[in-house]
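ESCALATION

Customer reports they have been waiting on this structure for their group meeting. Please prioritize. Original submission:
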Amino acid sequence: MNAPARLDVAWNAASGALDASRTWASAVVRLECEWDPATGEAACRASLDCAGDVRTVPVPAHARIDVRTHGLWVHLELAAADTVLLRASFERGRLAYCTSAVPGLAGLRGGTYDPPTAILELYQRVAA
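Update from on-call: job pushed to the front of the queue and completed.
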């Protein structure tokens, strides 16, 4: 088996976007996935941390991830059944583009959260 690949994406928001009585606090929506690059089968979980109150965001536990590289770019699409959960592009490891259903699944409306930040871990075998 290859070393697992990992993706961790986080969106920051004011918790007031979810609960008007918490306008002073921050919230973070987080998506974490791990997959075997040979199969593309991904195990995912998502959470919403709203001022220390952490709850699970309902995302499918198992999904498929399609990873394509083009020069210095890596493009990802994470989907479960007919639902695209995330599309992202990284240039030299830096997140350059991301669209996702996960903030909406956490209850956030568009425009109520910041652009995401992400960590992508991909490993390639080096010939001996």
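Sent to customer with the following note: The longest helix spans residues 102-105.
Escalation resolved.
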